[in-house]
Prior knowledge:
76 residues; mainly beta; 4 strands
Amino acid sequence: MVQDLADAREGAPDLKRVAATRSSDGSVRLALSLADKLTARDLLADADAGGPPGSVCVRLWTVSRPGTTKPDLLAW
């Protein structure tokens, strides 16, 4: 388990927990738990942020280490 840091920007969703499970067909399911409820407005991307608006992106490092390289996978 990883301790949650007080790292959320003012007004940004605060991620508290991520749980990953593998289904019988081999796909991976991620469940994100947040400190507060999300609204549709919370998911609007800034013009400079990139990525599709109205989505949550999970960055996955499977081979490399976070902070040393880009994520190995992006899940939208």
